[in-house]
Amino acid sequence: MVTKSVVSVSVAASITITSSKLVINPAHRFLCLKRLSSFNSFSASSLAIKWRGVSSCSSNKSATAMEGFTTRTRASAQPLENADELISSVETFIFDCDGVIWKGDKLIDGVPETLDMLRSKGKRLVFVTNNSTKSRKQYGKKFETLGLNVSEEEIFASSFAAAAYLKSIDFPKDKKVYVIGEDGILKELELAGFQYLGGPEDGGKKIELKPGFLMEHDEEVGAVVVGFDRYFNYYKVQYGTLCIRENPGCLFIATNRDAVTHLTDAQEWAGGGSMVGAICGSTQREPLVVGKPSTFMMDYLADKFGILKSQICMVGDRLDTDILFGQNGGCKTLLVLSGVTTLSMLQSPNNSIQPDFYTNKISDFLAPKAATKDIELRGDLSSLNGLDCVRIVHTIKSIVRAEQSRAVHKVVAASPRNLLSQPTMSSLATNDRCWKSAPSEIA
Amino acid sequence: MEGFTTTTTKASAQPLENADVLIASVETFIFDCDGVIWKGDKLIDGVPETLDMLRSKGKRLVFVTNNSTKSRKQYGKKFETLGLSVSEEEIFASSFAAAAYLKSINFPKDKKVYVIGEDGILKELELAGFQYLGGPEDGEKKIELKPGFLMEHDKDVGAVVVGFDRYFNYYKVQYGTLCIRENPGCLFIATNRDAVTHLTDAQEWAGGGSMVGAICGSTQREPHVVGKPSTFMMDYLAVKFGILKSQICMVGDRLDTDILFGQNGGCKTLLVLSGVTTLSMLQSPNNSIQPDFYTNKISDFLASKAATV
């Protein structure tokens, strides 16, 4: 008997977090089509299994776009589906700033509410940035200007880290620090009681390479601190080089080595990594890095606040600084896609840094508990027999399993008098842990 | 240059005791300039007589320098000013090497070159018929990091050439970085990576290695190096003059550029101690680069059979 019923199974995923691709084993897909097509001589074209992934944040991908069949060989980052669970599992959140809290001078959507929510849950918030151009105090002002309630003591910029590092090694107060960097570093050194030379004013200095010309340098310089410097020039390169090469025991400290950074929200700008790279090139020495991904700042925090690393979640937008920082420090890691890293960069075969979780932006913390996926069965399925049901059920199960999602699936009947009243389907609903439906919903 | 090579450990350098034997065994001498011929702007003792003697013996002389601040023509003038009889065609500066390299890969004439470097590079690019941007005049440019500010860059830049640049600044770093990161297929070429160099005879000055290091830091890419110790210039010479590498002796004062250049090229190597390398540096356990011979200065060639070091 030839029937003309059309079975279309569509999945409407009401995920509010990411437009994660449904990872589906192609063999299953084709297998299920094959299976269905053998039912009572249905033609394959009349049995289309449509998958529709709908996300509220980025572009809606149509069902037929089932790309991205990946075979994962290592534990890869999971989309953040249960924010509440993550939040309750840690005591402290460390946030990177650029790309997480703000982008250039613009606040990212939903940040104030998210921070308030976390505070209301008793979480400690810490802000760690590799940007060394401002001091903690100056950052405090930036947070204030953006309407955020953050105190100076919660902020740890790499400018502060450089001064804290020198303190931690008892850098002698009679020695000087030559700074290739901006005001933030100078302010923090001053606060910590260290003498310094250089900084922005050396940006105006030029050298005359005349015969016999010798550039003098202060022999009391015991450390050269290098960070982002928009006033970078040859004078500074040469001065720093002379100190490192000629002053015995002179330290070479880098605030950070970020290749690029969002100095304005319009584009990426060459970062501290270029100033540091220049000094590496002329001294043939590697610096001691105090900013991310070095764990100096995390060790400092853990010590200062008396917290266990396992109780911390690091939230950042860069894999090679923020996430690596968290991993090196031994805490949980969450990548946000609101900064420089895109989903394809995270999932690229060239990338080996996998955070525990990823999500679009931190305001996703405000989203409801768990993502729910509705599996909707449409059409008049009443004419399908028990064996058909079994096959459909197997197909759906195997697709969902291959999806490796911890989302809760709800079987929804589009039309009341249908397949779902069949014993097979209802038993599926109640027995299989992939599914969760009240019996009333099935009937 | 740290890092011991995994090849067989070379026998250590021998003091040059029989200059005549060495001279007779090769057809071409390649001389580094800084620390071998001159120091800053001062000629090293005995150089003119030595060069004359070698020419009289029918030897070909070539001068290869990593200094990219001048063009070959400008170097020709420097030799002349110092009273040396050297023609432009015998001089190979890394500025020339950059242009020669672009020619050798048929770099398209409709593409542009962004230069972080000095006049020498610009002149050689012009001579070779390439369009360029940047150079010393960008040393005056500043950027205003205001909200929403976007730095534009020429999308036709197909190569960024980086060399020593006393006018180095953030504008150039950012411009070069944008070209390399955003223009598809953009090349990153370094004239040389010398850490320090004798820009004045008074002291060592941070060299091209710092400018190149800055761009490596912001692009996370390694450059194609055309100057020593890369063998590009030696291969170029060998082809141009039709000479066998085994018939060449490289004379220089730096182990990690000159001597390594000679070794990579497969020719004989002679270290002179009239430049940056001292005998203790050569003999230090941290040094793994051993030239075939070493001597005080090239005028030792004039001494009778045994030179005293």
Question: Can you characterise this structure?
Answer:
The complex is a heterodimer of chains A (443) and B (309). Chain A has 443 residues and is of the alpha/beta class. Chain A is built from 14 helices and 20 strands. Chain A has helices at 26-37, 83-89, 111-120, 136-145, 158-168, 183-191, 234-246, 272-283, 296-305, 319-329, 343-347, 386-403, 423-431, 439-442; strands at 8-15, 49-55, 78-79, 92-95, 102-103, 106-107, 124-129, 155-157, 176-180, 195-198, 221-226, 251-254, 260-264, 267-270, 288-289, 312-316, 332-336, 357-359, 372-378, 408-413. In chain A, strands 3-18-17-16-4-7-8 form a seven-stranded parallel beta sheet, sandwiched between helices. In chain A, a hairpin with a 2-residue loop joins strand 5 and strand 6. Chain A is elongated, with a radius of gyration of 29 Å. By secondary structure, chain B is α/β, with parallel strands linked by helices. Chain B has helices at 19-25, 47-56, 72-81, 94-104, 119-127, 170-182, 208-219, 232-241, 255-265, 279-283; strands spanning 14-15, 28-31, 38-39, 42-43, 60-65, 91-93, 112-116, 131-134, 157-162, 187-190, 196-200, 203-206, 224-225, 248-252, 268-272, 293-295. In chain B, the strands form four sheets. In chain B, strands 1-16-15-14-2-5-6 form a seven-stranded parallel beta sheet, sandwiched between helices. In chain B, strand 15 (268-272), helix 10 and strand 16 (293-295) form a beta-alpha-beta unit. In chain B, helix 4 (94-104) packs parallel to helix 5 (119-127) and helix 6 (170-182) crosses helix 7. At the A-B interface, helix 7, strand 13, strand 14 and helix 8 of A face helix 6, strand 11, strand 12 and helix 7 of B.
